[in-house]
Design goal:
about 170 residues
Length: about 170
């Protein structure tokens, strides 16, 4: 999965800092690729990263617009989201060759404020200096995956989730 395409960081930053919330738009049906949604229920949605630096990179977000990674949740809500993150992560590990899964929440009040968690699978064999934050870095290139590849990947992860009993 080394085929890449150009990525315009300036346009991305402009959109996330001045445009509407991309997660809320997606949940309102204004999303270009609904077939890239892996899982959806009353509390949360799981979908593939639109600009993946790593193959199988997924995002988990609560349906309700919340901005604090812990402060906007009751403990039970937070733990339910973490249970879903665990479930998705295990499914990704079954579908995508993975040396390690990176889990993190990014964003701020200035951009991508709707809290969400990143599930980023590091493939085996990546040199140490290209791992960790370097593997997640968005520069001028992202993986070039067709809609069909993204849809197929979402379907595979969804099927793996169905097989895992959590």
């Amino acid at each position: 999965m080394s085929k890449t395409k150009s990525f315009n960081m300036d346009e991305y930053v402009e959109r996330i800092t001045s445009g509407p919330c991309f997660i809320c738009e997606m949940l309102d049906g204004i999303y270009e690729h609904p077939e890239h949604i892996i899982y959806d229920n009353d509390q949360a949605v799981v979908f593939l990263n639109r600009y993946p630096p790593l193959y199988g990179y997924a995002l988990v977000a609560p349906r309700e617009h919340r901005e604090q990674v812990t402060g906007d949740f009751m403990v039970s809500e937070y733990l339910e989201l973490q249970r879903l993150i665990f479930h998705v992560t295990e499914a990704i590990r079954q579908v995508v060759p993975t040396e390690r899964i990176y889990l993190l929440s990014l964003g701020s009040q200035q951009g991508n404020s709707h809290v969400h968690w990143h599930i980023a699978p590091l493939p085996p064999g990546v040199a140490f200096l290209d791992q960790q934050l370097e593997a997640l870095r968005l520069t001028d290139r992202v993986l070039d995956l067709s809609d069909e590849e993204m849809s197929g990947l979402a379907s595979e992860i969804r099927s793996a989730m169905d097989q895992i009993k959590i």
